[in-house]
Specification:
Elements: E1 4-5, H1 6-13, H2 27-33, E2 52-53, E3 58-60, E4 63-65, E5 72-76, E6 83-88, H3 92-107, H4 116-132, H5 134-145, H6 149-171, E7 178-179, E8 185-193, E9 196-200, H7 206-219, E10 223-227, H8 234-245, E11 253-256, H9 260-268, E12 275-279, H10 282-294, E13 300-303, E14 309-312, H11 318-330, E15 342-346, H12 350-363, H13 382-397, E16 401-404, E17 419-422, H14 429-432, E18 439-445, H15 448-456, E19 460-461, E20 463-467, H16 471-480, E21 485-488, E22 503-504, E23 507-508, E24 521-529
Parallel strand pairs: 9-10, 9-12, 10-11, 12-13, 14-15, 14-20, 15-18, 17-18, 20-21
Antiparallel strand pairs: 1-2, 3-4, 5-6, 7-8, 8-24, 13-23, 16-17, 19-22
Bound molecules: adenosine-5'-diphosphate.
């Protein structure tokens, strides 16, 4: 496929945009500037660190190849809607080729025969390469996704490297148990890889979702076929090339770009895929679970939607609560499955909270994600943009008070002004559905029992936030809230070691941390008679 230098792309796609001012070697000055994240200091011109888009084909058996059909699809720049590149479109036949390669690598390749320590060293080398190419990778991620470059470069790519090192550390520490059975037998368990793992990821955190899935799968000795999101195929291809540079044998990790019902469906229903991991919407989660059940009953982990409550109690420091609730909702353009999208505020601080939340939203710096100091870039695509605008309309029509935003920002791309609704009631659509955008819904409550009941009255259970100085209030809420993560006086604190996953319709299973390993291991019980029962 075409090797496209950024400079030529700029002249093709952005000739009239400030991106024409890209200067090679600007990375370091940008890196200094980005430490001022969140201070609303915006540089005059956006600066995109130089990047080469070399990898737009499918990655099968260690090679970049065209799709069987030869078809491609465009991946778009959310800032403008312009085409960044045409990417090979994988379909069922390509999934077959990738699964065959992964199967062969698992059954016959060097990967399962390596010592776990050798496998861990490849993961460590990959993490080093991620750090070496931090700015290029961050640039691709922001270009394809629209998230602030500062967030990509300073937070997400370093976190990606941390995740890979975390799993590298696990690779040679996975082992079974000796089991004291009631009888003259020596009993042990072997923890073995499952085989070929199929993994389907979304577009909101393309590389972190890649890391959450590839990390445990490979640490446990499996091979992988990954289907990336059609909106953001570029960064996974780029980093997978680095993974091979780090020594990953061919066929161990195969990456297919393509659409959900075709490539994703073929992967979920494939008879030779031994395990499926999916992150995306609850509706699609139901589909892939059915496809897995109707094919070979492969075990499935699901990380799905959410409508997470963030509860601000009467003793809260209002300024801090406003800032945290703002972050909990608006981070990543509101495109987080665990976003604190129902802000419950105690009546005693409600009015002050509304005024200050509105002021904070108005101050939020929206703009080109490559511009220094920008906190919010565009939404991912036109479909999401329209969906969010419809929710805003529904909020207004159902009687919530629009405090700020509520409209498009600028005249191109998919930007939406930070939107705050007050007077939100539990039965409004904006309080029930996952909006996945920069729309904060603020609800008033009187007492703890009431807010517990209302916070739990949702089909979701991914996360919750609690803001209080009172340890008894915190302990009560922590135990009463039905969600996979409870953040107390903080929000969106993620680490490789902290498990993540949902109660109820937010998912099945846990990713990250020690819990994620079980998703990729089979337990084999081995029973041997003991010849001398006197020594049981
Ligand atoms: P969103 O609505 O946020 O795009 P989706 O759940 O539709 O979330 O998408 C998440 C991932 O699931 C993407 O990689 C997408 O291509 C994939 N996907 C969508 N539909 C299907 C499907 N029918 N079968 C398998 N994968 C799918």
């Amino acid at each position: 496929m075409a090797t496209r230098r950024l400079s030529s792309l700029i002249s093709q796609s952005f000739s009239s945009s400030p991106f024409r001012q890209v200067v090679q070697g600007q990375n370091s000055s940008l890196a200094k500037g980005i430490r001022r994240i969140g201070t609303a200091v915006a540089a005059e011109e956006p600066i995109m660190p130089p990047v080469e888009l070399n990898y737009t084909q499918l990655l099968i058996n260690g090679q970049f190849v065209d799709s069987a059909s030869g078809k491609t699809f465009p991946t778009l720049d959310p800032r403008t809607g312009d085409v960044i590149a045409h990417v090979s479109e994988g379909e069922a036949e390509d999934i077959n080729r990738a699964v065959s390669a992964a199967r062969k690598a698992f059954d016959e390749g060097p990967w399962p025969k390596m010592t776990p320590y050798e496998r861990s060293r490849i993961l460590y080398r990959f993490a080093d390469l991620l750090e070496k190419h931090n700015d290029e990778i961050a640039s691709i991620e922001t270009w394809d996704n629209g998230k602030p470059y500062e967030q990509s470069a300073l937070v997400e790519i370093p976190m990606f490297a941390r995740l890979m090192r975390y799993y590298a550390g696990w690779a040679d520490k996975i082992h079974g148990l000796t089991v004291p059975a009631d009888g003259p037998h020596h009993v042990q368990t072997l923890h073995e890889p499952i085989g070929v793992a199929g993994q389907i990821i979304p577009w909101n955190f393309p590389l972190l979702m890649y890391a959450w899935k590839v990390g445990p799968a490979l640490a446990c000795g499996n091979t992988v076929v990954m289907k990336t999101a059609e909106q953001t195929p570029l960064s996974a291809l780029y980093v997978s090339k680095l993974f091979h540079e780090a020594g990953l044998p061919p066929g161990v990790l195969n990456v297919i770009s393509g659409f959900g019902p075709t490539a994703g469906g073929a992967l979920a229903s494939h008879m030779d895929v031994d395990k499926l991991a999916f992150t995306g919407s609850t509706d699609t989660g139901k589909i892939v679970l059915q496809l897995a059940a109707n094919s070979n009953l492969k075990p499935v982990t699901l990380e799905l939607g959410g409508k997470s409550p963030f509860i601000i109690c009467e003793d809260a420091d209002v300024d801090q609560a406003v800032e945290l609730a703002h972050f909990a909702l608006f981070f990543n353009q509101g495109q987080c499955c665990c976003a604190g999208s129902r802000t419950f505020v105690h009546e005693s601080v409600y009015d002050e909270f509304i005024e200050k939340s509105k002021a904070r939203a108005v101050k939020r710096v929206v703009g080109d994600p490559f511009r220094q100091g920008v906190e919010q870039g565009p939404q991912i695509d036109l479909e999401q943009f329209n969906k969010i605008m419809n929710y805003i309309k529904s909020g207004i029509e159902s009687g919530a008070t629009l405090e700020s935003g509520g409209e498009r920002f600028g005249d191109k791309g998919y930007y939406i002004k930070p939107t705050v609704f007050s007077d939100v009631k539990d039965d409004m659509l904006i309080a029930k559905d996952e909006i996945f955008g920069p729309v904060q819904s603020i609800l008033k409550f009187k007492d703890l029992d009431e807010v517990i009941r209302r916070a739990n009255a949702t089909r979701y259970g991914l996360a919750a936030g609690v803001f209080t100085k009172n340890i008894d209030t915190a302990n009560t809420l922590v135990r009463a809230l039905r969600a996979g993560t409870i953040w107390v006086n903080c929000f969106d604190v993620f680490d490789a070691a902290i498990p993540f996953g949902g109660f109820k319709m937010s998912g099945q299973g846990r990713e990250k941390g020690i819990y994620s390993l079980n998703n990729y291991l089979q337990v084999k019980a081995v029973v041997t008679p003991l010849k001398n029962p006197a020594w049981l």
